[in-house]
Every structure is written in C-alpha cells, then in structure tokens.
Design brief:
There is one protein chain. This protein is mostly helical. It has two domains: 12-89; 92-126, no CATH class. Helices cover 58% and strands 0% of the residues. Helix 3 (49-56) crosses helix 4 (59-65).
C-alpha cells in the first residue's frame, strides 16, 4: 500500500478547481498583482507610505489596501489607491474561453503600460 496522495489535474488551476477554491485563488492573485503594481508605482514616483496614506485618506486605509490578506477591497478603494500613485484604475473583463486559448498558446499575459499583448490581440484598449 502506498502513502502517496494522488492529485488529479495537470495544473494548479485544475487542482484548485477540483478543490473548489479556484475563484478565491484568482481573486487573491488579482489583489497581489494590484498591490505589486501599486508598490512599483510608489517606488518609481518616490511616494512614501505617509504620502500614500495622506492621498488615500488615512493611514488605516492605506495599510489595508496594501495588505494581501485583507479581503473586501472595494473598487472605490482601488481607484483612490491608483490615483494616489498617479495612475488610473481600469477593471478588465475577459472572456474565459479566449483567455484560455491565449494562455495555452502564449502563456500568461504580463500587464505593462507599454506592451499589453492580450489587449492588442483581442482589440481591447488599455
């Protein structure tokens, strides 16, 4: 008898889908990407945490926005955070089927202000 655990699926996405946690993982990943982009913009523009907090509204909100473990970040908070670092915020809906085909062919797209391959390929303006 083997003590090995059999895990179905060929990718992390299929594993999380089997466990019923794919949507939550995608939401957490999206927030992590948003936080990384905010921190990069803060660094690029020389914005300190105290300046960011003042622009967002208060220190507690600023820390909550930048905490990957805090759930329930609102679109209003994301918009204010983006504006605080001199950026705009634009939520993007994607068709799952087109995205799956694109990812299989080219890999996951990397968001970039200069080069958004997925947006150009499918005619979405960024």
């Amino acid at each position: 008898m083997s003590n090995k655990i059999r895990i179905g699926g060929s990718s992390l996405d299929s594993l999380f889908a089997e466990l019923g946690e794919l949507e939550e993982m995608n939401a957490r990943l999206s927030k992590r990407i948003f936080i990384d982009q905010l921190r990069a913009a803060m660094k690029r523009h020389g914005i300190t945490m105290s300046t960011f907090a003042r622009r967002v509204g208060n220190k507690a909100s600023a820390y909550r926005i930048l905490d990957a473990d805090v759930r329930g970040l609102t679109l209003d908070s994301m918009t204010r955070a983006a504006a605080a670092v001199g950026m705009g915020f634009q939520p993007l809906l994607t068709e799952k089927r087109k995205m799956e085909i694109y990812e299989r062919k080219y890999g996951k797209p990397v968001a970039s202000p200069k080069r958004d391959v997925y947006a150009r390929k499918y005619g979405k303006a960024s």
